[in-house]
Specification:
By secondary structure, this protein is mainly beta. Helix content is 8%, strand content 31%.
Length: 289
Amino acid sequence: MTDRALVVVRAGALTTVQDRGRPGYAHLGVPRSGALDPPAAALANRLVGNAPDAAVLETTLTGCALRPRSTVTVAVAGAPCSVRVGGRPVAWGAPVVVPAGEVLEVGAAERGVRGYVGVCGGIAVEPVLGSRSTDLLSGLGPAPLADGAVLPLGNPSPAHARVDVAPQPSPPAELVLRVTLGPRDDWFTPGAVRDLTDRTFRVSSASNRIGLRTEGPALERARPGELPSEGMVLGAVQVPPDGRPVVFLADHPTTGGYPVIAVVRTADLPAAAQALPGTPVRFVAVRRR
């Protein structure tokens, strides 16, 4: 039994291990996966002196609680929340020392959806296809955390400088997603294309790591039937039969048969990871095909 490990006291609603993902395997049907809010995950690593690709924990809404077997330095980034060590309040968004045997409590998100827990040395579960990320769609990587699970930790790296504090963006009050129309916008009526960029949608409570689902106007199709299955990319705005757009996130399928009306700029997707159900969503066309 190694002392470099975390024991899961409370797993929370959905806490997973994530890193930068496993790009390059879409031809095998394997999504990229990885942290939904990459800048927040990278900051959590930087705060504890890890390499940018070290694995962190991604929490969802309700946080988690962990007990280290040896003294460790941790940092919580992403959605703002209360953080406690041994029942005492400590800083969010800054490195904190957790003594061996004390409980680190990551509270429920006060704003936003997903928090990131960086631990000095990184979460050292066994990599699959070069990544330690949990992929909910394909089932690759470690299972979501369960109470009583033990997570091995890597050794601290002296090669990466640690920062004490850094600014973080607030979760969005309104989610603005810049899109390039196409490749299948011609499958929709001109009115539907205008609705996409002129009307306001809202984040659906059915959203998850696979896709951000929306509520709002149904986009009318100009062509019946379905496409032969074709490749899907991160940020694709696919429109299923109910007409409500779905923005594909990290665990999205690599192929699909519903038409893609637009693609979201990658730089705008971290904000989508933090958008609560009910958040207004606007799609802004910045360039046509």
